[in-house]
Design goal:
homodimer, 115 residues, alpha+beta, Alpha-Beta Plaits, 4-stranded antiparallel sheet, 3 helices, globular
Protein backbone atom coordinates (compact mmCIF):
# COMPACT_ATOMS: atom_id res chain seq x y z
CA UNK A 1 0.00 0.00 0.00
CA UNK A 2 1.31 3.37 -0.95
CA UNK A 3 0.42 5.50 2.03
CA UNK A 4 3.69 7.23 2.67
CA UNK A 5 1.99 10.51 3.44
CA UNK A 6 -1.30 9.32 4.86
CA UNK A 7 -0.20 9.39 8.48
CA UNK A 8 0.91 12.99 8.19
CA UNK A 9 -2.20 13.83 6.15
CA UNK A 10 -4.76 14.76 8.77
CA UNK A 11 -6.45 17.92 7.55
CA UNK A 12 -9.60 19.11 9.26
CA UNK A 13 -12.87 18.07 7.63
CA UNK A 14 -14.42 18.98 5.31
CA UNK A 15 -12.16 17.96 2.47
CA UNK A 16 -12.70 15.57 -0.47
CA UNK A 17 -11.87 11.98 -1.33
CA UNK A 18 -11.95 10.23 -4.70
CA UNK A 19 -12.50 6.49 -4.23
CA UNK A 20 -11.34 4.57 -7.30
CA UNK A 21 -12.07 0.83 -7.22
CA UNK A 22 -11.02 -1.25 -10.19
CA UNK A 23 -10.56 -4.69 -11.66
CA UNK A 24 -7.44 -5.08 -13.80
CA UNK A 25 -7.29 -7.03 -17.03
CA UNK A 26 -4.30 -9.36 -17.26
CA UNK A 27 -2.83 -7.19 -20.07
CA UNK A 28 0.34 -5.13 -20.14
CA UNK A 29 1.67 -5.36 -16.57
CA UNK A 30 4.73 -3.27 -17.41
CA UNK A 31 2.86 -0.47 -19.14
CA UNK A 32 0.28 -0.42 -16.37
CA UNK A 33 2.91 -0.19 -13.61
CA UNK A 34 4.71 2.62 -15.45
CA UNK A 35 1.46 4.58 -15.87
CA UNK A 36 0.43 4.03 -12.23
CA UNK A 37 3.74 5.36 -10.96
CA UNK A 38 3.64 8.36 -13.30
CA UNK A 39 0.05 9.22 -12.30
CA UNK A 40 1.02 9.00 -8.62
CA UNK A 41 3.91 11.45 -9.21
CA UNK A 42 1.77 13.78 -11.31
CA UNK A 43 -1.15 13.81 -8.85
CA UNK A 44 1.18 14.85 -6.03
CA UNK A 45 2.13 17.97 -8.02
CA UNK A 46 -1.45 19.16 -8.51
CA UNK A 47 -2.93 22.11 -6.60
CA UNK A 48 -5.23 20.92 -3.83
CA UNK A 49 -3.67 17.44 -3.55
CA UNK A 50 -3.57 16.18 0.06
CA UNK A 51 -2.56 12.52 -0.13
CA UNK A 52 -3.15 9.11 -1.68
CA UNK A 53 -3.56 5.55 -0.39
CA UNK A 54 -3.82 2.47 -2.52
CA UNK A 55 -3.88 -1.30 -2.38
CA UNK A 56 -4.22 -4.04 -4.99
CA UNK A 57 -4.89 -7.70 -4.27
CA UNK A 58 -3.35 -10.65 -6.07
CA UNK A 59 -6.69 -11.23 -7.84
CA UNK A 60 -6.32 -7.88 -9.65
CA UNK A 61 -8.92 -5.92 -7.70
CA UNK A 62 -7.74 -2.65 -6.24
CA UNK A 63 -8.66 0.45 -4.26
CA UNK A 64 -7.02 3.86 -4.63
CA UNK A 65 -8.21 6.82 -2.58
CA UNK A 66 -6.87 10.29 -3.29
CA UNK A 67 -7.62 13.26 -1.03
CA UNK A 68 -8.16 16.85 -2.16
CA UNK A 69 -8.98 20.23 -0.65
CA UNK A 70 -11.98 20.91 -2.90
CA UNK A 71 -14.03 19.83 -5.92
CA UNK A 72 -12.36 22.30 -8.28
CA UNK A 73 -8.99 20.59 -7.68
CA UNK A 74 -10.55 17.20 -8.42
CA UNK A 75 -12.02 18.48 -11.69
CA UNK A 76 -8.71 20.05 -12.71
CA UNK A 77 -6.92 16.73 -12.08
CA UNK A 78 -9.59 14.81 -14.00
CA UNK A 79 -9.06 17.16 -16.96
CA UNK A 80 -5.24 17.13 -16.87
CA UNK A 81 -4.21 16.12 -20.39
CA UNK A 82 -1.68 13.44 -19.40
CA UNK A 83 -4.21 12.02 -16.94
CA UNK A 84 -6.89 12.07 -19.69
CA UNK A 85 -4.65 10.03 -21.92
CA UNK A 86 -4.07 7.48 -19.12
CA UNK A 87 -7.84 7.31 -18.53
CA UNK A 88 -8.40 6.45 -22.19
CA UNK A 89 -5.75 3.73 -22.19
CA UNK A 90 -7.22 2.42 -18.96
CA UNK A 91 -10.55 1.83 -20.68
CA UNK A 92 -8.88 0.33 -23.75
CA UNK A 93 -6.60 -2.17 -22.07
CA UNK A 94 -5.81 -1.92 -18.36
CA UNK A 95 -9.20 -2.14 -16.65
CA UNK A 96 -11.95 -4.66 -17.01
CA UNK A 97 -14.12 -2.36 -14.90
CA UNK A 98 -13.83 0.53 -12.49
CA UNK A 99 -15.96 2.72 -10.28
CA UNK A 100 -15.20 6.34 -9.28
CA UNK A 101 -16.87 7.97 -6.28
CA UNK A 102 -16.41 11.64 -5.36
CA UNK A 103 -16.95 12.10 -1.62
CA UNK A 104 -16.99 14.89 0.92
CA UNK A 105 -15.14 13.84 4.07
CA UNK A 106 -17.27 15.11 6.92
CA UNK A 107 -15.72 13.60 10.06
CA UNK A 108 -12.60 11.66 10.89
CA UNK A 109 -10.76 10.19 13.84
CA UNK A 110 -7.56 8.28 14.40
CA UNK A 111 -5.92 5.74 16.64
CA UNK A 112 -3.67 6.52 18.37
CA UNK A 113 -5.44 9.87 18.78
CA UNK A 114 -3.66 12.79 17.11
CA UNK A 115 -1.28 14.36 19.66
CA UNK B 1 -10.52 -8.02 -2.12
CA UNK B 2 -13.95 -8.71 -0.83
CA UNK B 3 -16.19 -6.88 -3.25
CA UNK B 4 -18.70 -9.54 -4.02
CA UNK B 5 -21.55 -7.06 -3.96
CA UNK B 6 -19.78 -3.90 -5.06
CA UNK B 7 -20.58 -4.26 -8.74
CA UNK B 8 -24.26 -4.61 -8.01
CA UNK B 9 -24.06 -1.83 -5.44
CA UNK B 10 -24.71 1.27 -7.48
CA UNK B 11 -27.20 3.36 -5.54
CA UNK B 12 -27.81 6.95 -6.59
CA UNK B 13 -25.80 9.57 -4.73
CA UNK B 14 -25.99 10.86 -2.10
CA UNK B 15 -25.17 7.98 0.20
CA UNK B 16 -22.35 7.50 2.71
CA UNK B 17 -18.98 5.77 2.84
CA UNK B 18 -16.82 4.89 5.83
CA UNK B 19 -13.16 4.71 4.81
CA UNK B 20 -11.17 2.65 7.33
CA UNK B 21 -7.41 2.57 6.71
CA UNK B 22 -5.26 0.60 9.11
CA UNK B 23 -1.88 -0.83 9.90
CA UNK B 24 -1.95 -4.27 11.51
CA UNK B 25 0.32 -5.41 14.29
CA UNK B 26 1.87 -8.82 13.72
CA UNK B 27 -0.18 -10.26 16.62
CA UNK B 28 -2.91 -12.87 16.61
CA UNK B 29 -3.49 -13.57 12.91
CA UNK B 30 -6.10 -16.23 13.67
CA UNK B 31 -8.12 -14.11 16.10
CA UNK B 32 -7.94 -11.14 13.74
CA UNK B 33 -9.15 -13.16 10.74
CA UNK B 34 -12.02 -14.60 12.77
CA UNK B 35 -13.08 -11.12 13.95
CA UNK B 36 -12.80 -9.63 10.44
CA UNK B 37 -15.04 -12.32 8.98
CA UNK B 38 -17.59 -11.96 11.80
CA UNK B 39 -17.70 -8.15 11.45
CA UNK B 40 -18.21 -8.52 7.70
CA UNK B 41 -21.17 -10.87 8.31
CA UNK B 42 -22.62 -8.67 11.04
CA UNK B 43 -22.29 -5.42 9.04
CA UNK B 44 -24.22 -6.98 6.16
CA UNK B 45 -27.17 -7.56 8.51
CA UNK B 46 -27.40 -3.93 9.66
CA UNK B 47 -30.15 -1.56 8.51
CA UNK B 48 -28.83 0.87 5.91
CA UNK B 49 -25.90 -1.33 4.83
CA UNK B 50 -25.19 -1.06 1.08
CA UNK B 51 -21.90 -2.86 0.49
CA UNK B 52 -18.26 -3.28 1.49
CA UNK B 53 -14.91 -3.43 -0.32
CA UNK B 54 -11.59 -4.22 1.28
CA UNK B 55 -7.98 -4.94 0.51
CA UNK B 56 -4.92 -5.65 2.64
CA UNK B 57 -1.33 -5.68 1.41
CA UNK B 58 1.39 -8.09 2.46
CA UNK B 59 2.99 -5.31 4.54
CA UNK B 60 -0.08 -5.24 6.82
CA UNK B 61 -1.60 -1.98 5.59
CA UNK B 62 -5.23 -2.17 4.58
CA UNK B 63 -8.26 -0.28 3.30
CA UNK B 64 -11.87 -1.20 4.02
CA UNK B 65 -14.72 0.92 2.68
CA UNK B 66 -18.29 0.27 3.79
CA UNK B 67 -21.27 2.00 2.18
CA UNK B 68 -24.44 3.11 3.99
CA UNK B 69 -27.70 4.87 3.20
CA UNK B 70 -27.33 7.53 5.92
CA UNK B 71 -25.39 8.74 8.96
CA UNK B 72 -27.86 7.27 11.46
CA UNK B 73 -27.09 3.77 10.13
CA UNK B 74 -23.35 4.41 10.47
CA UNK B 75 -23.80 5.55 14.08
CA UNK B 76 -25.96 2.52 14.91
CA UNK B 77 -23.28 0.19 13.47
CA UNK B 78 -20.53 2.03 15.37
CA UNK B 79 -22.52 1.51 18.60
CA UNK B 80 -23.42 -2.17 17.98
CA UNK B 81 -22.21 -3.98 21.11
CA UNK B 82 -20.39 -6.81 19.34
CA UNK B 83 -18.75 -4.27 17.05
CA UNK B 84 -17.78 -2.14 20.09
CA UNK B 85 -16.05 -5.12 21.63
CA UNK B 86 -14.13 -5.73 18.38
CA UNK B 87 -13.13 -2.05 18.27
CA UNK B 88 -11.67 -2.32 21.79
CA UNK B 89 -9.69 -5.45 20.97
CA UNK B 90 -8.52 -3.75 17.80
CA UNK B 91 -6.92 -0.98 19.82
CA UNK B 92 -5.46 -3.44 22.34
CA UNK B 93 -3.84 -5.87 19.94
CA UNK B 94 -4.76 -5.94 16.26
CA UNK B 95 -3.97 -2.43 15.01
CA UNK B 96 -0.84 -0.39 15.33
CA UNK B 97 -2.82 2.54 13.94
CA UNK B 98 -5.99 3.29 12.03
CA UNK B 99 -7.89 6.19 10.54
CA UNK B 100 -11.68 6.41 10.08
CA UNK B 101 -13.26 8.87 7.65
CA UNK B 102 -17.02 9.38 7.33
CA UNK B 103 -17.84 10.63 3.83
CA UNK B 104 -20.86 11.71 1.83
CA UNK B 105 -20.73 10.23 -1.68
CA UNK B 106 -21.81 13.06 -3.95
CA UNK B 107 -21.14 11.75 -7.47
CA UNK B 108 -20.15 8.48 -9.03
CA UNK B 109 -19.57 6.91 -12.42
CA UNK B 110 -18.58 3.51 -13.73
CA UNK B 111 -16.82 1.78 -16.57
CA UNK B 112 -18.35 0.08 -18.43
CA UNK B 113 -21.21 2.57 -17.99
CA UNK B 114 -24.23 1.22 -16.09
CA UNK B 115 -26.64 -0.24 -18.63
Amino acid sequence: MNDSNSTAMRPSAPYYAVIFTSQRTTDDETGYARMAERMDQLARQQPGFLGVESSRDKDGSGITISYWTDLASIRAWRDNSEHRSAQEKGKQKWYESFHVRICRVEQSHSFPPAG
